Protein backbone atom coordinates (compact mmCIF):
# COMPACT_ATOMS: atom_id res chain seq x y z
CA UNK A 1 0.00 0.00 0.00
CA UNK A 2 1.50 3.38 -1.00
CA UNK A 3 1.78 6.36 1.37
CA UNK A 4 -1.25 8.08 -0.12
CA UNK A 5 -3.42 5.01 0.46
CA UNK A 6 -2.19 4.70 4.05
CA UNK A 7 -3.04 8.35 4.73
CA UNK A 8 -6.52 7.86 3.28
CA UNK A 9 -7.13 4.89 5.59
CA UNK A 10 -5.87 6.81 8.65
CA UNK A 11 -8.07 9.80 7.86
CA UNK A 12 -11.09 7.58 7.32
CA UNK A 13 -10.61 5.79 10.66
CA UNK A 14 -9.98 9.08 12.46
CA UNK A 15 -13.14 10.50 10.95
CA UNK A 16 -15.13 7.53 12.21
CA UNK A 17 -13.69 7.98 15.72
CA UNK A 18 -14.50 11.68 15.84
CA UNK A 19 -17.92 11.50 14.21
CA UNK A 20 -20.84 11.95 16.65
CA UNK A 21 -22.84 8.88 17.55
CA UNK A 22 -26.07 8.50 15.62
CA UNK A 23 -29.29 9.47 17.40
CA UNK A 24 -30.25 5.83 17.86
CA UNK A 25 -26.90 4.77 19.38
CA UNK A 26 -27.05 3.13 22.81
CA UNK A 27 -25.04 4.52 25.72
CA UNK A 28 -23.75 1.79 28.03
CA UNK A 29 -23.06 2.55 31.70
CA UNK A 30 -21.34 0.38 34.30
CA UNK A 31 -22.65 0.16 37.86
CA UNK A 32 -20.39 -1.42 40.50
CA UNK A 33 -22.26 -3.41 43.16
CA UNK A 34 -20.65 -5.29 46.04
CA UNK A 35 -23.80 -7.34 46.67
CA UNK A 36 -24.50 -10.93 45.73
CA UNK A 37 -27.40 -12.24 43.63
CA UNK A 38 -29.84 -12.51 46.55
CA UNK A 39 -29.21 -9.14 48.22
CA UNK A 40 -31.98 -6.57 48.45
CA UNK A 41 -29.72 -3.82 47.15
CA UNK A 42 -28.67 -5.98 44.19
CA UNK A 43 -32.38 -6.13 43.39
CA UNK A 44 -32.43 -2.33 43.47
CA UNK A 45 -29.47 -2.11 41.08
CA UNK A 46 -31.03 -4.60 38.68
CA UNK A 47 -34.33 -2.72 38.77
CA UNK A 48 -32.47 0.49 37.95
CA UNK A 49 -30.94 -1.16 34.87
CA UNK A 50 -34.36 -2.44 33.81
CA UNK A 51 -36.22 0.80 34.51
CA UNK A 52 -33.67 3.07 32.86
CA UNK A 53 -33.68 0.99 29.68
CA UNK A 54 -37.48 1.16 29.60
CA UNK A 55 -37.74 4.88 30.44
CA UNK A 56 -35.04 5.80 27.90
CA UNK A 57 -36.60 3.49 25.28
CA UNK A 58 -33.30 1.70 24.85
CA UNK A 59 -31.11 4.79 24.71
CA UNK A 60 -29.36 3.81 27.96
CA UNK A 61 -28.13 0.41 29.11
CA UNK A 62 -26.75 -0.27 32.59
CA UNK A 63 -24.45 -3.23 33.15
CA UNK A 64 -24.53 -4.16 36.83
CA UNK A 65 -21.16 -5.51 37.94
CA UNK A 66 -22.05 -7.43 41.11
CA UNK A 67 -20.19 -9.49 43.72
CA UNK A 68 -17.55 -6.79 44.16
CA UNK A 69 -15.77 -7.69 40.93
CA UNK A 70 -14.58 -4.08 40.51
CA UNK A 71 -13.50 -3.70 44.14
CA UNK A 72 -15.05 -2.69 47.46
CA UNK A 73 -17.51 0.17 47.64
CA UNK A 74 -14.96 2.75 48.71
CA UNK A 75 -12.66 1.89 45.79
CA UNK A 76 -15.47 1.91 43.22
CA UNK A 77 -16.81 5.21 44.56
CA UNK A 78 -13.37 6.72 44.12
CA UNK A 79 -13.47 5.40 40.56
CA UNK A 80 -16.85 7.06 40.02
CA UNK A 81 -15.54 10.26 41.55
CA UNK A 82 -12.59 10.23 39.14
CA UNK A 83 -14.73 9.36 36.11
CA UNK A 84 -13.36 5.89 35.33
CA UNK A 85 -16.71 4.39 36.40
CA UNK A 86 -20.25 5.64 35.83
CA UNK A 87 -22.15 4.46 38.92
CA UNK A 88 -21.08 3.03 42.26
CA UNK A 89 -23.06 1.49 45.10
CA UNK A 90 -21.77 2.46 48.54
CA UNK A 91 -22.95 1.97 52.12
CA UNK A 92 -23.39 4.89 54.49
CA UNK A 93 -20.44 3.80 56.65
CA UNK A 94 -18.15 4.23 53.63
CA UNK A 95 -19.89 7.22 52.05
CA UNK A 96 -19.26 9.22 55.21
CA UNK A 97 -15.58 9.11 54.21
CA UNK A 98 -16.60 11.29 51.25
CA UNK A 99 -19.50 13.16 52.88
CA UNK A 100 -18.72 13.67 56.57
CA UNK A 101 -22.24 14.61 57.79
CA UNK A 102 -23.35 11.06 56.96
CA UNK A 103 -21.57 10.03 60.15
CA UNK A 104 -24.92 10.93 61.72
CA UNK A 105 -26.58 7.96 60.04
CA UNK A 106 -24.09 5.60 61.68
CA UNK A 107 -24.94 6.85 65.16
CA UNK A 108 -26.88 4.18 67.07
CA UNK A 109 -30.61 4.81 67.42
CA UNK A 110 -30.42 8.01 65.34
CA UNK A 111 -33.50 6.68 63.52
CA UNK A 112 -36.14 4.83 65.50
CA UNK A 113 -37.00 1.34 64.28
CA UNK A 114 -40.68 2.33 64.01
CA UNK A 115 -39.92 5.53 62.04
CA UNK A 116 -37.95 4.02 59.16
CA UNK A 117 -40.72 4.57 56.60
CA UNK A 118 -40.90 8.28 57.44
CA UNK A 119 -37.13 8.50 57.17
CA UNK A 120 -37.09 6.85 53.74
CA UNK A 121 -39.76 9.15 52.34
CA UNK A 122 -37.43 12.07 53.01
CA UNK A 123 -35.16 10.63 50.28
CA UNK A 124 -37.71 11.25 47.54
CA UNK A 125 -35.90 12.87 44.61
CA UNK A 126 -38.32 15.73 44.08
CA UNK A 127 -39.47 16.86 47.53
CA UNK A 128 -37.37 14.88 50.01
CA UNK A 129 -35.36 17.10 52.34
CA UNK A 130 -32.77 14.40 53.03
CA UNK A 131 -32.31 13.67 49.32
CA UNK A 132 -31.69 17.35 48.64
CA UNK A 133 -29.20 17.67 51.46
CA UNK A 134 -27.18 14.52 50.67
CA UNK A 135 -27.26 15.22 46.94
CA UNK A 136 -25.97 18.74 47.54
CA UNK A 137 -23.08 17.42 49.62
CA UNK A 138 -22.35 14.68 47.07
CA UNK A 139 -22.06 17.20 44.26
CA UNK A 140 -19.41 19.08 46.22
CA UNK A 141 -17.16 16.00 45.92
CA UNK A 142 -17.88 15.20 42.26
CA UNK A 143 -20.79 12.79 42.73
CA UNK A 144 -24.53 12.82 41.97
CA UNK A 145 -26.98 10.93 44.21
CA UNK A 146 -29.11 8.59 42.10
CA UNK A 147 -30.75 6.17 44.58
CA UNK A 148 -31.07 5.54 48.30
CA UNK A 149 -31.68 1.86 49.01
CA UNK A 150 -32.97 0.39 52.24
CA UNK A 151 -31.70 -2.51 54.25
CA UNK A 152 -33.50 -3.71 57.39
CA UNK A 153 -32.33 -2.64 60.83
CA UNK A 154 -29.33 -4.59 62.02
CA UNK A 155 -28.56 -6.42 65.24
CA UNK A 156 -25.83 -8.85 66.28
CA UNK A 157 -25.75 -12.55 65.40
CA UNK A 158 -23.40 -14.90 67.22
CA UNK A 159 -21.94 -18.38 66.94
CA UNK A 160 -22.77 -21.07 69.53
CA UNK A 161 -19.24 -20.85 70.96
CA UNK A 162 -19.82 -17.17 71.86
CA UNK A 163 -22.11 -18.21 74.72
CA UNK A 164 -24.15 -15.01 74.38
CA UNK A 165 -27.46 -15.27 76.24
CA UNK A 166 -27.99 -11.60 77.15
CA UNK A 167 -26.14 -8.29 77.20
CA UNK A 168 -23.95 -9.29 80.16
CA UNK A 169 -22.68 -12.47 78.48
CA UNK A 170 -21.72 -10.52 75.34
CA UNK A 171 -18.87 -8.91 77.29
CA UNK A 172 -15.51 -9.63 75.65
CA UNK A 173 -17.00 -11.42 72.64
CA UNK A 174 -15.19 -10.71 69.35
CA UNK A 175 -17.59 -8.87 67.03
CA UNK A 176 -16.91 -8.08 63.39
CA UNK A 177 -17.08 -4.37 62.52
CA UNK A 178 -16.50 -2.29 59.40
CA UNK A 179 -13.97 0.56 59.35
CA UNK A 180 -16.62 2.93 60.73
CA UNK A 181 -15.27 4.44 63.98
CA UNK A 182 -18.83 4.81 65.28
CA UNK A 183 -19.55 1.14 64.73
CA UNK A 184 -16.43 0.28 66.72
CA UNK A 185 -17.52 2.56 69.55
CA UNK A 186 -20.94 0.94 69.69
CA UNK A 187 -19.32 -2.47 70.06
CA UNK A 188 -17.24 -1.00 72.87
CA UNK A 189 -20.43 0.32 74.50
CA UNK A 190 -21.69 -3.27 74.60
CA UNK A 191 -18.34 -4.27 76.18
CA UNK A 192 -17.57 -6.47 73.17
CA UNK A 193 -14.25 -6.61 71.35
CA UNK A 194 -14.39 -4.89 67.91
CA UNK A 195 -12.58 -6.75 65.11
CA UNK A 196 -12.43 -5.04 61.68
CA UNK A 197 -13.05 -7.60 58.92
CA UNK A 198 -14.00 -7.01 55.28
CA UNK A 199 -17.44 -8.27 54.28
CA UNK A 200 -16.11 -10.88 51.87
CA UNK A 201 -13.95 -12.36 54.66
CA UNK A 202 -16.64 -12.55 57.36
CA UNK A 203 -17.76 -16.15 56.69
CA UNK A 204 -14.22 -17.46 56.99
CA UNK A 205 -13.58 -15.32 60.07
CA UNK A 206 -16.66 -16.79 61.78
CA UNK A 207 -15.67 -20.28 60.70
CA UNK A 208 -12.12 -19.98 62.02
CA UNK A 209 -13.05 -18.17 65.24
CA UNK A 210 -11.39 -14.89 64.29
CA UNK A 211 -14.72 -13.35 65.25
CA UNK A 212 -17.66 -14.74 67.24
CA UNK A 213 -20.39 -12.52 65.86
CA UNK A 214 -21.34 -9.84 63.39
CA UNK A 215 -23.74 -6.98 62.79
CA UNK A 216 -26.39 -8.20 60.32
CA UNK A 217 -30.12 -8.16 59.54
CA UNK A 218 -32.44 -11.14 59.20
CA UNK A 219 -32.66 -10.94 55.41
CA UNK A 220 -28.91 -10.94 54.82
CA UNK A 221 -28.51 -13.62 57.51
CA UNK A 222 -30.83 -15.85 55.48
CA UNK A 223 -29.46 -15.01 52.03
CA UNK A 224 -25.94 -15.98 53.14
CA UNK A 225 -27.21 -19.08 54.99
CA UNK A 226 -25.61 -17.92 58.24
CA UNK A 227 -27.48 -20.62 60.22
CA UNK A 228 -24.57 -22.83 59.19
CA UNK A 229 -22.40 -20.83 61.62
CA UNK A 230 -24.58 -18.69 63.90
CA UNK A 231 -27.53 -19.65 66.04
CA UNK A 232 -28.55 -16.54 68.02
CA UNK A 233 -29.34 -12.84 67.69
CA UNK A 234 -28.97 -10.11 70.30
CA UNK A 235 -31.73 -7.80 69.07
CA UNK A 236 -30.27 -4.32 69.44
CA UNK A 237 -31.98 -2.98 66.26
CA UNK A 238 -29.71 0.03 66.59
CA UNK A 239 -28.46 0.51 63.05
CA UNK A 240 -30.53 1.32 59.98
CA UNK A 241 -27.94 0.90 57.24
CA UNK A 242 -28.75 2.69 54.01
CA UNK A 243 -27.05 2.07 50.68
CA UNK A 244 -26.51 4.75 48.06
CA UNK A 245 -25.94 4.66 44.32
CA UNK A 246 -23.95 7.63 43.07
CA UNK A 247 -22.92 8.76 39.60
CA UNK A 248 -19.93 10.69 38.34
CA UNK A 249 -21.17 14.30 38.42
CA UNK A 250 -19.32 15.42 35.29
CA UNK A 251 -20.96 12.61 33.27
CA UNK A 252 -24.35 13.51 34.70
CA UNK A 253 -23.85 17.20 33.93
CA UNK A 254 -22.86 16.36 30.34
CA UNK A 255 -26.30 14.84 29.69
CA UNK A 256 -29.25 16.81 28.40
CA UNK A 257 -31.94 17.83 30.91
CA UNK A 258 -34.21 15.18 29.37
CA UNK A 259 -31.57 12.48 29.82
CA UNK A 260 -30.88 13.57 33.39
CA UNK A 261 -34.58 13.28 34.17
CA UNK A 262 -34.62 9.75 32.73
CA UNK A 263 -31.85 8.73 35.13
CA UNK A 264 -33.45 10.38 38.16
CA UNK A 265 -36.88 8.96 37.33
CA UNK A 266 -35.39 5.47 36.98
CA UNK A 267 -33.53 5.91 40.27
CA UNK A 268 -36.63 7.08 42.10
CA UNK A 269 -38.80 4.27 40.73
CA UNK A 270 -36.16 1.64 41.49
CA UNK A 271 -35.50 2.77 45.05
CA UNK A 272 -39.21 2.68 45.88
CA UNK A 273 -39.45 -0.83 44.45
CA UNK A 274 -36.44 -1.85 46.53
CA UNK A 275 -37.96 -0.39 49.71
CA UNK A 276 -40.95 -2.72 49.30
CA UNK A 277 -38.72 -5.66 48.42
CA UNK A 278 -36.55 -4.97 51.49
CA UNK A 279 -39.52 -5.46 53.80
CA UNK A 280 -40.28 -8.78 52.13
CA UNK A 281 -36.58 -9.66 52.30
CA UNK A 282 -36.63 -9.14 56.08
CA UNK A 283 -39.88 -11.10 56.54
CA UNK A 284 -38.39 -14.06 54.67
CA UNK A 285 -35.26 -13.76 56.80
CA UNK A 286 -37.32 -13.94 59.98
CA UNK A 287 -39.06 -17.04 58.65
CA UNK A 288 -35.65 -18.56 57.87
CA UNK A 289 -34.57 -17.92 61.47
CA UNK A 290 -37.74 -19.57 62.74
CA UNK A 291 -37.18 -22.64 60.55
CA UNK A 292 -33.58 -22.95 61.76
CA UNK A 293 -34.41 -22.41 65.45
CA UNK A 294 -32.33 -19.27 65.74
CA UNK A 295 -32.56 -17.88 69.26
CA UNK A 296 -33.84 -14.26 69.29
CA UNK A 297 -32.69 -12.45 72.42
CA UNK A 298 -34.69 -9.30 73.18
CA UNK A 299 -33.09 -6.57 75.27
CA UNK A 300 -34.71 -5.76 78.59
CA UNK A 301 -35.57 -2.13 79.43
CA UNK A 302 -32.67 -2.13 81.89
CA UNK A 303 -30.25 -3.34 79.22
CA UNK A 304 -31.45 -0.68 76.76
CA UNK A 305 -30.95 1.99 79.42
CA UNK A 306 -27.45 0.68 80.13
CA UNK A 307 -26.51 0.78 76.44
CA UNK A 308 -27.76 4.35 76.01
CA UNK A 309 -25.89 5.45 79.11
CA UNK A 310 -22.70 3.89 77.74
CA UNK A 311 -23.27 5.61 74.39
CA UNK A 312 -23.25 9.14 75.78
CA UNK A 313 -19.48 9.63 75.33
CA UNK A 314 -19.87 8.57 71.68
CA UNK A 315 -22.53 11.22 71.09
CA UNK A 316 -20.46 13.80 72.95
CA UNK A 317 -17.54 13.04 70.65
CA UNK A 318 -19.27 12.83 67.27
CA UNK A 319 -22.28 15.15 67.34
CA UNK A 320 -20.11 18.32 67.42
CA UNK A 321 -18.36 17.08 64.24
CA UNK A 322 -21.60 16.81 62.26
CA UNK A 323 -23.48 19.60 60.52
CA UNK A 324 -26.33 20.46 62.96
CA UNK A 325 -28.61 21.15 59.99
CA UNK A 326 -28.39 17.50 58.94
CA UNK A 327 -29.02 16.29 62.49
CA UNK A 328 -32.11 18.50 62.70
CA UNK A 329 -33.42 17.21 59.36
CA UNK A 330 -33.09 13.60 60.53
CA UNK A 331 -34.92 14.41 63.76
CA UNK A 332 -37.65 16.45 62.04
CA UNK A 333 -38.58 13.79 59.48
CA UNK A 334 -39.34 11.35 62.32
CA UNK A 335 -41.86 13.62 64.07
Describe this structure in words.
The protein is α/β, with parallel strands linked by helices and 335 residues long. The protein has helices at 3-18, 40-55, 73-82, 92-95, 116-121, 129-140, 181-189, 202-208, 218-223, 249-253, 257-291, 301-318, 324-332; strands at 27-32, 60-65, 87-91, 143-150, 154-158, 174-177, 193-196, 213-216, 232-239, 242-248, 295-298. The chain is globular, with a radius of gyration of 23 Å. This is TRAP transporter substrate-binding protein.
Question: Care to give the gist of this entry?
Answer:
Residues 1-25 form the signal peptide. This protein is an alpha/beta fold. It contains 13 helices and eleven strands.
Secondary structure: number of strands: 11
Q: Order of strands in the sheet with the most strands?
A: 7-6-8-5-9-11
Radius of gyration: 23 Å
Structural class: alpha/beta
Number of helices: 13
> Main sheet?
6 strands, mixed
SSE layout and pairing:
Elements lengths: L2 H16 L8 E6 L7 H16 L4 E6 L7 H10 L4 E5 H4 L20 H6 L7 H12 L2 E8 L3 E5 L15 E4 L3 H9 L3 E4 L5 H7 L4 E4 L1 H6 L8 E8 L2 E7 H5 L3 H35 L3 E4 L2 H18 L5 H9 L3
Parallel strand pairs: 1-2, 1-3, 6-7, 6-8, 9-11
Antiparallel strand pairs: 3-10, 4-10, 5-8, 5-9
Helix pairs in contact: 2-11, 7-12
Amino acid sequence: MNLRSVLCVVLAVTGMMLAPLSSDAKTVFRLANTGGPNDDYTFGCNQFAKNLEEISKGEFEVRVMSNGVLGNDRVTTEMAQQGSLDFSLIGQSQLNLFIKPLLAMDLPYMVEFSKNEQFLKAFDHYDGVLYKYVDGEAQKVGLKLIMTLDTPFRSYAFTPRSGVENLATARGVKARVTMSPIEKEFVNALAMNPCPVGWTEVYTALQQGTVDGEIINFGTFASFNRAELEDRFLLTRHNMAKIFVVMNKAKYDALTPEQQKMILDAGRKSQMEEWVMSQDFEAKGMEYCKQHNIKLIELTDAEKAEIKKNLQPLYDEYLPQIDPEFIKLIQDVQK
